[in-house]
Every structure is written in C-alpha cells, then in structure tokens.
Amino acid sequence: MDLYHAWCNLKDGVKDTDFADRVHAYLGHLKEGGAIVGYRLTRRKLGLGPAHLTEFHIIIEVEGLAQLDKAFAQVASRADPAEGLHHAVNSLVTDVSFALYRDFPDAGRVRGEEKF
Q: Is 0.85 topped by the overall pTM?
C-alpha cells in the first residue's frame, strides 16, 4: 500500500466543517470511482505537533503507483466532476505540502541475510 500525504492549513475565514465536507466529497468521489482505495482526514489535537507541520493532514491510500497515476490523471484532465471537487478543496487551503510513503517492508522487498 502506498500512502500519499497532504498537510495544510485553512485560509483565513474558512470554516473547518466546510473544509471537511469538501474533502469528503472530493476524495469520496475518487474512492467510489476506484481511483483510490481510501483516505483519512485528520486534525492536530491540543496543538501538539512540530511547528513545521500544519493543522490538517490528509492520508490517501492507493494500491501502488499505477493507481496513484490513475487518480492524478483523472484530476489533471480538469474534467468535472473531479475538477470542481478538487478546486473546492484547494481554494480553501494554504501552506500545502505533500509526501509519498509506502508500507514497509512491502511485498517487493527481498529478504535475506541483511547486515547492518
């Protein structure tokens, strides 16, 4: 499983519940269409966390880079409904950063005698 992470803050005046509704509409659409396996929207709790991390964190699960590429292609086509749903989320956020992680060890890892 590959995990695509997005961190962000909300622009001034944006309601947190409006943001959550739009994220669920957008990523729910991608999930229903098979472009992603699943997702989570999380929010920093009690102000705990490193200063460089933002208040909101989205984790998108895909079965591999081919599925992630399919999701990117769907959004990059700029065709509705994905384009409108994507813009509805992006228009609310600032301080965005991304990362891509994988389960470890994954199925592709060859195991043998490893020396440290």
A: yes
